[in-house]
C-alpha cells in the first residue's frame, strides 16, 4: 500500500452536494429525485458530467447505473467497486446514498490528481433505484444478475406505473438490465460509505461507524376484506370492519417482536389505504404495508410465520378475509471481516472516533455481497434523522468519512493481494 494519503477537498465535495441537492428540490425543502423521473435522469446526467470533468472513464449499463473508472496498473485484475445511489424517496434530505457516491468521486479525483496509480481498476457506481420505487434495488440487483424477465415485466411503483413504462419515457430499454450482470471474477470487493440514518453515532459523539452486518428485511402488502356499510345504521357487533383488522394487527406488533424477534428486530406499518374511504362508511377493505427487519434470516422467517398466524386469527375473529403479497425479501449479510478490519485501521490512522456497529437499513452493499466481499463506512446522522429535509451530518464528520474512505480504498486497491 502507498504511504501518502492524497488531500481530500471538502470544499469541492460540498459544492457537489449543494449542486446535486438542487436537482429535484421542491418548495417544501425536500428533494424529489425518485428513480426514473425527470429529476433522477437530470441527476444522472449531472453526475456523469462531473465524472468526465474529473478525467474518469464514464459509462452507463443497461440498468442505467452510472459508472466511472480509474484505471489501475493491471487491467486484468478484479476491480475494487465503490458506490451507492443518488435516487431518493419523496421529500428526502440531500445526503442518504448521495454522500457515498460524491465522496467516492472525490476520492477518485484526489487519487488521480496525486498521480498515484492503483494496482487494480477502481470503479465508482451510482446504482439505480436503491430506494425501491419499483419494489427492489434494480441497479445493484442487475449488477449481480438477480433481475429476471419477470422483474422487468411485473415491477410497478405504488401508483401503478410500470418500470418498463417509466424507463421507456427516457428512451431506455428495461430489458437491457438483464445484460448489466457483472462477472463475479471481475470484482475484488465492494465498499460503500453512507449516513447512518440512526442516532447511535451522534448519540455517542463518534464520527465513524465500522459496519459489521447489514439487516435483512421483508416487505408485504397486506389486505383485510370485510363489508362496506353505513356508519350510522350498522350496529357495532354486526360490522365486518376491515380497518379494525389493521388496528388489531398493529396492536399485536409488540408481542410479535417480543415472542419471535430479537433485540435487533423492527416492524413497521408505514401506509394504510381504506376503501371506500368515506367518513360515513365502514371500510370494506384495508390495505397496508408491513416492513420487518432483523440481522438474522432465521428470525425473519419466524417473524413472517408468526405474522401469518396472527393475520389469520384476526380475520377469523373479525369475520374478514386476509391475504398478503410479498413485495421483497432481502437477506441480511455480514460485512467481510478483512475489509472491516481495513476500515477500522483507516479510521485509526485518520484519528477519528469510531465504533463497530450494525446497519438497521438496507443498502446496495448487501445485494453486491452475493458476488464479492463488502465493507461499509457510516458517518453520523444528527438526531438520527433521515429520509427528510432535516437529514444532515456535520461537515467535519463528512470530511472524516471521506478520509477513512480514501484510506480504505488505498488499502484495497493498492495491494496486489486483495
From TrEMBL:
Q: Where is the secretion signal located?
A: none
Could you list this entry's UniProt keywords, alphabetically sorted.
Hydrolase
| Cross-referenced InterPro entries | Amidase_Cbmase, Bact_exopeptidase_dim_dom, Peptidase_M20, Peptidase_M20_dimer
Q: One Pfam family this chain carries?
A: Peptidase_M20
Is Chaperone set as a keyword in this record? no
A single GO molecular function term of this UniProt record? hydrolase activity
The Peptidase M20 dimerisation domain is annotated at 216-316
PANTHER family assigned? ALLANTOATE AMIDOHYDROLASE, ALLANTOATE DEIMINASE-RELATED
Similarity comment: family membership: Belongs to the peptidase M20 family.
User: Could you identify this protein by its name?
Assistant: N-carbamoyl-L-amino acid hydrolase
Instruction: Give the organism, scientific name.
Output: Haloferula sargassicola
Please name the taxonomic classification of the source.
Bacteria, Pseudomonadati, Verrucomicrobiota, Verrucomicrobiia, Verrucomicrobiales
Gene it is expressed from: amaB_1
Amino acid at each position: 500500500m502507498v504511504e501518502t494519503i492524497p488531500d481530500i477537498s471538502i470544499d469541492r465535495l460540498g459544492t457537489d452536494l449543494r449542486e446535486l441537492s438542487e436537482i429535484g428540490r421542491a418548495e417544501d425543502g425536500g428533494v424529489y429525485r425518485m428513480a426514473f423521473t425527470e429529476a433522477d435522469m437530470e441527476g444522472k446526467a449531472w453526475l456523469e458530467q462531473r465524472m468526465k470533468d474529473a478525467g474518469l472513464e464514464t459509462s452507463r449499463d443497461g440498468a442505467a447505473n452510472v459508472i466511472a473508472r480509474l484505471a489501475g496498473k493491471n487491467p486484468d485484475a478484479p476491480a475494487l467497486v465503490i458506490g451507492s445511489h443518488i435516487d431518493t424517496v419523496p421529500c428526502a434530505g440531500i445526503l442518504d446514498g448521495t454522500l457515498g457516491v460524491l465522496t467516492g468521486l472525490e476520492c477518485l479525483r484526489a487519487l488521480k490528481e496525486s498521480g498515484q496509480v492503483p494496482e487494480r481498476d477502481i470503479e465508482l457506481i451510482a446504482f439505480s433505484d436503491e430506494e425501491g420505487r419499483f419494489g427492489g434495488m434494480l441497479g445493484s440487483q442487475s449488477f449481480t444478475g438477480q433481475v429476471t424477465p419477470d422483474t422487468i415485466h411485473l415491477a410497478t411503483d405504488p401508483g401503478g406505473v410500470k418500470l418498463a413504462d417509466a424507463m421507456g419515457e427516457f428512451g431506455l430499454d428495461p430489458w437491457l438490465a438483464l445484460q448489466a450482470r457483472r462477472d463475479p471474477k471481475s470484482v475484488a470487493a465492494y465498499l460503500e460509505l453512507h449516513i447512518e440514518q440512526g442516532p447511535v453515532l451522534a448519540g455517542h459523539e463518534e464520527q465513524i461507524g465500522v459496519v459489521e452486518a447489514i439487516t435483512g428485511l421483508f416487505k408485504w402488502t397486506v389486505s383485510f376484506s370485510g363489508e362496506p356499510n353505513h356508519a350510522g345504521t350498522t350496529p357495532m357487533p354486526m360490522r365486518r370492519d376491515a380497518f379494525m383488522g389493521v388496528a388489531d394487527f398493529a396492536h399485536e406488533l409488540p408481542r410479535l417482536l417480543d415472542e419471535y424477534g430479537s433485540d435487533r428486530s423492527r416492524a413497521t406499518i408505514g401506509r394504510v389505504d381504506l376503501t371506500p374511504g368515506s367518513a360515513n362508511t365502514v371500510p370494506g377493505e384495508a390495505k397496508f404495508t408491513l416492513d420487518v427487519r432483523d440481522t438474522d434470516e432465521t428470525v425473519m422467517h419466524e417473524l413472517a410465520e408468526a405474522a401469518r398466524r396472527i393475520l389469520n386469527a384476526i380475520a377469523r375473529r373479525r369475520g374478514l378475509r386476509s391475504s398478503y403479497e410479498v413485495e421483497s425479501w432481502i437477506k441480511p449479510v455480514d460485512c467481510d471481516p478483512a475489509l472491516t478490519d481495513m476500515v477500522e485501521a483507516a479510521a485509526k490512522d485518520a484519528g477519528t472516533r469510531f465504533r463497530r456497529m450494525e446497519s438497521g437499513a438496507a443498502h446496495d452493499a448487501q445485494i453486491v455481497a452475493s458476488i464479492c466481499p463488502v465493507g461499509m463506512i457510516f458517518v453520523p446522522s444528527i438526531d438520527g434523522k433521515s429520509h427528510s429535509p432535516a437529514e444532515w451530518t456535520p461537515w467535519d464528520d463528512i470530511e472524516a468519512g471521506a478520509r477513512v474512505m480514501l484510506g480504505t480504498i488505498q488499502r484495497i486497491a493498492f495491494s496486489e493481494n486483495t
